[in-house]
Design goal:
Length: about 220
């Protein structure tokens, strides 16, 4: 009789434990936030081998320097006009040029580097009429590695006007259809971790996939 009572008591404890667990536990200690996906994790809390992560984004084929992007773009900062965009060359600068550009005096948290890259991009007006004649068209360029990570960026003072670097551009009054202008912009990079792609788009990018879907050129520095 004593043994049967003990067994019955064990069954009751087990049933009670299951009931309390299903109700959130003693004291109403429910978890807040998004519940765990039971299909993704097993009893150990580790990801189940049957669950695969989402596919890693991949770059499309790279454009060669001098080849235009396959479609026309309408930069937001021109306030009109559609352009053919062509990356023409990238010139790798020196540590002396980087020092002359005073990157060490830039704002806190800004990406710095020991190597400047002077990037030349040509813009040909194909359609429409820009309302802004001298926009900063280089603002749409991005220097990324093969994982889509920004490994070089334009400093706050991004003119690149230094001996052997970008030249001071002329001032224009307007654009004509068929007119081509080449703009130079400087990127602060690290020689030990050079970019792999030069990407360009007119919209504000929010994800890696956005840049990988846009036109990009193989990063080949002279």
């Amino acid at each position: 009789m004593h043994r049967r009572s003990k067994t019955l008591y064990g069954v009751l404890v087990t049933v009670l434990g299951i009931t309390l667990t299903a109700c959130g536990g003693v004291g109403g200690g429910e978890k807040s936030g998004v519940p765990e996906d039971s299909s993704a994790k097993g009893a150990t809390g580790q990801e189940s081998p049957s669950v695969r992560p989402s596919k890693k984004p991949e770059w499309g084929p790279a454009l060669a320097m001098g080849r235009p992007a396959p479609k026309l773009y309408e930069p937001q900062n021109t306030e009109g006009g559609k352009f053919e965009v062509t990356a023409t060359k990238i010139v790798k600068g020196t540590a002396a040029q980087a020092k002359y550009l005073h990157w060490d005096q830039s704002s806190p948290g800004e990406l710095k580097g020991n190597t400047p890259y002077f990037v030349y991009i040509a813009y040909t007006l194909k359609e429409g009429k820009p309302q802004v004649a001298n926009p900063d068209l280089g603002a749409h360029a991005a220097a990324l590695d093969m994982n889509g990570v920004e490994v070089a960026a334009r400093p706050v003072v991004h003119s690149g006007f230094v001996e052997g670097g970008c030249e001071v551009p002329p001032v224009y009054m307007s654009w004509d259809i068929g007119e081509t202008r080449t703009h130079c912009t400087v990127f602060a990079g690290d020689e030990s971790n050079p970019p792999a792609r030069l990407a360009w788009d007119t919209t504000d990018m929010t994800t890696v996939e956005d840049y990988m879907k846009a036109a990009s050129w193989e990063w080949v520095a002279q």
